[in-house]
Design brief:
By secondary structure, the chain is an all-alpha fold. It contains nine helices and no strands.
Length: 270
């Protein structure tokens, strides 16, 4: 199976993961809200409707129907973060990127192309895949007597660009889910907050003594949803920035390795 076919298979798998993670997160959110937070033991007299919450789970349950959505957002962020950590660890390869590039430069300067390709097979990861593609093309064009030096250089550069283009979508996949969760987490929380405040003010508007139970429920709903929304957005923003910075670092390493290969070719075949 060639690299293009492998990348297409990985893209399809990641597409299934994206949709499946969201559906799974929604299901988890509903189950946790109904059967964990909504357990009768979390309320006085085992009365979910009128009983006062006995613990934090009962208090969160008072957040209302928005809570399952916010749980789903948090679970989605967690699932994508785990998936991204696993993917980027595999893409980083086995060794240090800077050391790997130095080894490749040394081998190229001594015209040890086969050893450099073998080093890529040992290193593995996205950087090694890009370098291996460039080195393979390097090896082929150096034996081609029909091409000019500029044509050989252009062929190597094209191969490096294509190899990089195959790797980058895999590195950044699913980051859009995290960025979306960062935006909608706070918005969903605010929706719950507004509903909670409406309920609280409705309790205050009663003729005579305010309905303290309804007032407390409305305030709990507002605060719980605000907290969940802020937590979801904060986690999503932190991990989005972390992954983006890590991907930028890997992309820089690919560009540096590509520049080294082209530079060594020019130096050895000027």
């Amino acid at each position: 199976m060639n690299n293009t076919a492998k990348k297409s298979g990985n893209n399809a798998l990641m597409g299934w993961f994206s949709g499946g993670a969201i559906v799974f997160a929604l299901l988890v959110g509903v189950l946790i809200y109904n059967y964990v937070m909504g357990n009768a033991s979390n309320f006085e007299n085992n009365d979910i409707v009128k009983g006062h919450p006995k613990n934090i789970l009962g208090i969160i349950h008072r957040g209302g129907f928005i809570v399952p959505l916010l749980i789903a957002v948090n679970v989605t962020v967690l699932l994508v973060v785990i998936e991204r950590f696993i993917t980027l660890m595999a893409a980083s390869g086995k060794g240090n990127a800077a050391s790997f590039i130095r080894r490749i430069r040394e081998m190229l300067s001594n015209n040890r192309i086969d050893e450099a390709i073998a080093a890529c097979d040992q290193q593995k990861g996205s950087l090694a895949s890009v370098v291996r593609g460039g080195l393979t093309r390097y090896k082929v064009v150096t034996k081609d007597g029909k091409l000019s030096t500029d044509e050989k250089k252009a062929a190597i550069e094209k191969e490096l660009e294509e190899a990089t283009g195959l790797e980058l979508p895999m590195l950044s996949r699913n980051l859009v889910i995290i960025s979306t969760c960062a935006s909608i987490g706070t918005l969903i929380g605010l929706i719950g907050t507004v509903f909670g405040m409406i309920r609280a003010f409705a309790a205050l508007a009663n003729t005579g003594a305010p309905d303290t139970a309804a007032l407390a429920t409305g305030i709990s709903e507002a605060l719980v949803n605000t907290a969940f929304g802020i937590i979801a957005s904060t986690l999503a923003i932190i991990f989005y920035n972390y992954f983006t910075n890590r991907i930028d670092s890997m992309t820089y390493s690919m560009d540096e390795a590509g520049y080294s290969i082209v530079s060594e070719f020019q130096a050895n075949h000027a």
